[in-house]
Amino acid sequence: MNNSRWRMSVLVAGHAVDDLYQGAVPAVVPFLVLERGYSYLAAAGITVAATLLSSVVQPLFGVLTDRRPMPWLVPLGMILAGVGVGLSGLSDSYVLTWLAIALSGLGVAAYHPEAARLARRVAQDSHVGMSWFAVGGNVGFALGPVLVTPVLAFGGLAWSPVLAVPALIGGAATFAALRGVQGASSLAAVSSGRDDWGQFSRLTVIIVARSMVTFGLGTFLAIWATQRVGGGPAAGAAALVVLFGVGAASTLLGGVLAGRWGRVRVLQASYALAVPAVAGVALVPGPAVYLMVALTAVALYVPFSLHVTLGQDYLPNRMGTASGVTLGLAVSIGGLGSPVVGAIAGASDLQWGLLSLVLLPIIAAAAARGLRSPSSMRA
């Protein structure tokens, strides 16, 4: 394996490790409630410490790395993400627990902008390479509960330091793999023109709309599938497996399709498909709902890695800022859509709540029609 492939493999695995800690926080919260008697408000505050802080701070790290490349932030951010979660179970103080989770969120924020820039360079502008990088994050997020639940179920919160082990190993491996690309001259993005803030703003609207759909489905899909299919919790879990499993495969497919048809065309087609697919999830009866979930996953995840590279190319002089917004702020804001779906479902029923999500891919598809292709990447 040559150096580029080795470094890309480490970056993909590192992205999985880093985003594992985003998925870990929701899995830690029930143990905090159980052992410490946290209220729903206190539990929500823990989640806010990880998600909202990370999404707001992430663009700031992007601005900093635009001024001076900081490749050391990649392993350091990963380590902080793990150490924060690892410390979260050691103190009975709510403030110290909140600060530990906030430290984890800060680490996640520090990691992404520079990691995305490095991945783009190591991938040598390959669509498929960047798709693998994006898949790493998706897989890591899904693995968070897989790591947390057995560890804390066995040893309780006192065993939370064990959760930091993947970050320590991953951080060391990432530092070693990136030693050959430490120089600023090798990391700085080569400007290919003026920043196009108009196109970048349009792309941000698309990402926010996509994120709201994804968060909304992730929150309510299991309940809805159980209602449509029956069979208890297993039916709901199967729907989530289809959504995220097909989604991971579709992220890779997006890189292949973009190499053949172009990023903007693939993105436009994906969001056009998302409109009937999301509507189908809400309307199709019985087991056929799984087919509509699969189509929705294709439509929402094929463009996932393309968002990042398009953002970087629309802001060629501010690639860190672009990465911070596309991977952080715009994605996390999507979580604000779930309470709206819940409110609509409470006022009528869950079917109307899910149908309300159809408006979002319509917005994304309309915004995508105005996108122009920046400088092309190679397949």
Number of continuous helical runs: 16
SSE run: HHHHHHHHHHHHHHHH
Catalogue the unreliable spans.
182-190
Shape label: globular
Radius of gyration: 20 Å
The proportion of residues in beta strands is: under 5%
The profile of the biggest β sheet is: none
Number of strands: 0
The mean pLDDT is: 85
**Ends distance:** 20 Å
Helical fraction equals over 70%
Q: Which secondary-structure class do the elements indicate?
A: mainly alpha
Description:
Helix content is 79%, strand content 0%. The model is unreliable at 182-190 (pLDDT under 50). The protein is mainly α.
Give me the secondary-structure topology:
Blueprint: H1 3-36, H2 40-67, H3 73-87, H4 94-122, H5 127-155, H6 165-177, H7 184-187, H8 197-229, H9 233-261, H10 263-283, H11 289-301, H12 304-314, H13 319-333, H14 337-347, H15 350-355, H16 359-368
Helix pairs in contact: 1-2, 1-3, 1-4, 1-5, 1-6, 2-4, 2-13, 3-4, 3-6, 4-13, 5-9, 5-12, 8-9, 8-12, 8-13, 8-14, 8-16, 9-10, 9-11, 10-11, 10-16, 12-13
Key structural traits:
mainly alpha, globular, 16 helices, single chain, 379 residues
Quick summary of this structure?
The chain has 16 helices and no strands.
